[in-house]
């Protein structure tokens, strides 16, 4: 999934940005190599949440390159030479890249200190990924572009020239956009109330939250995971009437541990009978397991996100010298989280460790994308005197639009590959994340 997602990102970058796209692709390979080396050097455990952190940082590494390349094209459109445009492109993109990455880094630092378990794993890989992505996009990509220019790629046709686009009047439709968002969020609240009143629970909590039953089976031979998933799990699902079955293979043995929802005595006996009839084995033991994502861990995650959000608000207000920027970004971030929560409620996607990873990824991704547009608004406010704020905002969003679409697409490719080729637990992570990206 990772390899296919990465291949799609590289093809897209080269097709859209030509020589800079090639430079970014080489830098991306260097980034991944450095990431693997660092993960090994710091002995970080690679959890599902950790993988989420890496996906987000790859998306942000591409994001930084897209911001730089868009700036280079804009400089070429003003008549500058290629060499001068490259220099100015990196210089003008620097503030947006730093602000976007620092706000996400603040979130990662808070989550690392306050969070526990999977939240801490996410924070560690995300922080590492952000630092490496800034290094590769600002230093490595620049070095590769300089080499390519030196060996003969000096014509502006290799880099592309920005075209002047008509300003799209986004704010004139703000009532429509707010109405659509309101309906989406409200539908999630209604779904949670309906499911709660019907006794199914507001959200579809998984075993990590609700607990369950652990059944250990020693088969007559050592099966691989494909055999277990294709032949054993469907039969367990049939017996217990629930398709959430977690599997743990015991190393160098034929033992497999199956974790399911909490089973009553009759369900346990029916499961024992199925294993005896179908596979000629009797389960060694069945025991109840408590929810590993305890109330304390959930509270830690909520506290971490609230603290991180407040610190990001302070940073943005300080950097942009205007509390409206900070407040707007936090409201936009809350909007994205609530829409994804509505999707979880309506689609009944399982809520467990991957829920925390998904929400944290959206928080990091959302704030980064918002900062890029705000950076352009701040720049235009200085340059466009005697122009209404509404017109400046419309122009700024239009100028940032290709970047917003392209970086969303490249991250979408990575997540879609996980959704198509990943195991069921990854699909439950990838689907809501795709909604979050959109």
List keywords for this structure.
4-stranded antiparallel sheet; 4 strands; mainly alpha; 438 residues
Care to describe what's here?
This protein is mainly alpha-helical and 438 residues long. The protein has helices at 2-17, 19-41, 48-77, 82-114, 118-150, 174-197, 207-210, 225-240, 265-279, 295-320, 323-347, 353-383, 389-421, 424-437; strands at residues 212-218, 246-249, 255-260, 285-289. A hairpin with a 5-residue loop joins strand 2 and strand 3 (255-260). The longest helix is centred in the N-terminal third of the chain and has 33 residues, at 82-114. The two termini are 20 Å apart.
Distance between the termini: 20 Å
> What fraction, in percent, of the residue positions are helical?
over 70%
Gyration radius (Cα, Å) is: 25 Å
| Major sheet | 4 strands, antiparallel
- If helices are DSSP runs of H or I spanning 4 or more residues, what is the number of helices? 14
Q: What are the secondary-structure elements, in order, as H or E?
A: HHHHHHHEHEEHEHHHHH
Strand order of the largest sheet: 2-3-1-4
Describe how the helices and strands are arranged.
Elements lengths: L1 H16 L1 H23 L6 H30 L4 H33 L3 H33 L23 H24 L9 H4 L1 E7 L6 H16 L5 E4 L5 E6 L4 H15 L5 E5 L5 H26 L2 H25 L5 H31 L5 H33 L2 H14 L1
Give the gist of this structure.
This protein has helices at residues 2-17, 19-41, 48-77, 82-114, 118-150, 174-197, 207-210, 225-240, 265-279, 295-320, 323-347, 353-383, 389-421, 424-437; strands at residues 212-218, 246-249, 255-260, 285-289. The protein is mainly alpha-helical and 438 residues long.
